[in-house]
Amino acid sequence: MQRVVDLSTDGLHVAVHRGFLTISQDREKIGQIALDDISAVIAHAHGLTWSSTVFTRLAERSVPVVLCAQNHAPVACVWPMEGHHLQGARLNAQADASRPMAKRLWRDVVVAKIRMQAAVLSSLGREAGAFELLARKVRSGDPDNVEAQAARRYWPLLMGADFRRDRSAEGANALLNYGYTVLRATICRAICAAGLHPAIGLHHANRGNAFALADDLMEPYRPLVDRLVVNLREAGTESVDTDAKTELVRLTTLDLESPQGTSPLHLHATRLAQQFAAMCLGEGGKPDLPVPPPPLVLAGLGKSAAETT
Fold it and tell me: pTM to 2 decimals?
């Protein structure tokens, strides 16, 4: 199973030995994991030491290394220059992709996100009828910014009227930051493995954003993080502790339905990135965007952490 390695203890030494990523503290090895089993590495700690060999071996396997601030929001990412044997052709096709195609895909992404938000609210017994109407209003490129209209309705219904999404805040915001970081790293790896560049986005176009495409493609999955965070808070979790991290990372293994059958989220994201690469090359096809899980599945997210507290 693909695993996310979280480095959150200060003063660790990270190395590579015989196909394994090894973690040491005070010159004593405290853990190891096969390089081929790693989907992403997320670093939060101070005083980490590692050699360039670590980054080289991870890059050879299209594994991103995400460096985070204290609020668990990513500030940098080391990603592979060569993640696919067709990377040159795919990068050129991605850069030259037609705006109409990108705008159509962005419309589909926004519709999928809004419907996922509706499913999350419905699973909590909250009124979500307006979200289906909003989804139907989304046009190519979302020129009316229906995504923002949905967000203005969504957050008060989900978290309460006083909640404000603030990347620098603690509590629910820190939990969301961590969950989104895991998701972003998962999508970034899928993009690199498909021979694409994460900085060339569909909609997000901030010149300072090196992960614009990852931020685009992760949008429909975001509400899954939101629902898990609600569950964690209902169980009394207000900080990014070990149990919360475990559950947020485990979300990448959540089974999602699609026309091609059931697959874990990380494989679903890989397939989506491959489909986008094919679209850039003019091979057509419709993106396999996530379909909302049943209400009972959404209600059960993070419950194993709740049972241990």
Answer: 0.83
